[in-house]
Amino acid sequence: MSKIIRLTTRLANQIAAGEVVERPASVVKELLENSLDAQATRLDVDVEQGGVKLLRIRDNGLGVNEADLPLTIARHATSKIHELEDLEGVTTLGFRGEALASISSVSRLSLTSSDNQSGAGWCVQAEGRDMEAVLLPAAHPQGTTVEVRDLFFNTPARRKFLRTEKTEFSHLEEIVKRLALSHFDVGFTLRHNQRVVHALRSATTEAEQDRRVATLCGPNFIESAVRIDTQTDELRLWGWMGLPTFSRSQADLQYFFVNGRSVKDKVVNHAVRQAYRDVMYHGRHAAFVLYLELDPKGVDVNVHPTKHEVRFRESRQVHDFLYRSLHRAIAEMSPADSQPVNQ
Ligand code: ADP
Ligand code: MG
């Protein structure tokens, strides 16, 4: 008798969900990235009970047409890459075609969308069932609304790992914050239990960008930071560097984006730490919001399903550029500014 069975689609998706859907914050990350990939300029995020009861994300992006709608929640279905070569220079935040399939297998998900201005669209629903998509006509302006209710309702083991409403919401807010810091041209609102937590208008001028950073990272940071912008033929680094006097006891105000994607990277961390080494007391941490831009072909983003990690093709070159740029900027800060002060 055969001992091997094929997993049902739902079970396969639930297993895959383990990799990317850890908590409400991970759902928000995937949904907001989809909206940004669809060129949305306005994003509204509604959260109830830390996101466990409800997450609703509404965007004004390109939308999805009726024919594509069932495919949005199918596994390994994406509009973002077509062949392996596309992966090499991928510029979208998503490309794996797995997030909506995974999320819909562990929640009650509905996606309503319209790809035109007629006011009419379609809704697809999948309630953690055997991935049978139900399609219904629905009124919707151009763009997409995704609702995720009762996260992990059918995976109690996962649900058990969720923390308090407050903790889950703070993780989620951190995700929104990172995306708001890397997409200044997009307006964001975030509401928790009907209370407005953030309402950020799109920020195009430098002053508006400063204001957004002040809102998200605190006015003290922006007052104690310098703006940098430096580039070579291949690499550009810009953003805000905290003065050494603004050192922190924790590494909790360190944002680094590579081509608009928030990453945690050893090469980057090392270069930054080295650059600040001489002006920072041992055990203190620098604060920064920095953006590295390079040819997408020079960085592999398909290292981990959550895409928090990247691999640079020329990691030595990237490291040296970062170190040199930051070190120079620190040296140019006025000597009084760069004396280490223990706060
Ligand atoms: P991926 O983002 O890796 O392609 P997803 O499972 O996150 O995979 O989404 C599947 C597809 O659904 C996307 O490729 C896109 O075509 C479509 N989609 C999802 N969300 C949106 C949205 N907010 N607006 C427009 N299209 C969307
Ligand atoms: Mg996606």
Compact overview of the structure:
By secondary structure, the protein is α+β, with helices and mostly antiparallel strands.
Describe this entry's structure for a reader:
There is one protein chain. The chain is an alpha+beta fold and 343 residues long. The chain folds into two domains: 9-200, Histidine kinase-like ATPase, C-terminal domain (Heat Shock Protein 90); 217-338, 2-Layer Sandwich (Ribosomal Protein S5, domain 2). Helix content is 33%, strand content 24%. The chain is built from twelve helices and 15 strands. The chain has helices spanning 9-20, 24-37, 69-72, 84-88, 99-105, 156-159, 165-182, 206-217, 219-223, 266-276, 315-332, 335-338, and strands at residues 42-48, 54-59, 108-114, 120-126, 134-139, 143-149, 187-192, 195-200, 225-231, 236-242, 254-258, 261-262, 288-293, 299-300, 311-312. The strands form three sheets. Strands 5-4-3-6-2-1-7-8 form an eight-stranded mixed sheet, covered by helices on one side. A hairpin with a 2-residue loop joins strand 11 (254-258) and strand 12 (261-262). Helix 2 packs parallel to helix 7 and helix 10 (266-276) runs parallel beside helix 11 (315-332). The radius of gyration is 22 Å and the shape is globular. Adenosine-5'-diphosphate (ADP) binds next to helix 2 and helix 5. The site of adenosine-5'-diphosphate has 22 residues, from helix 2 and helix 5.
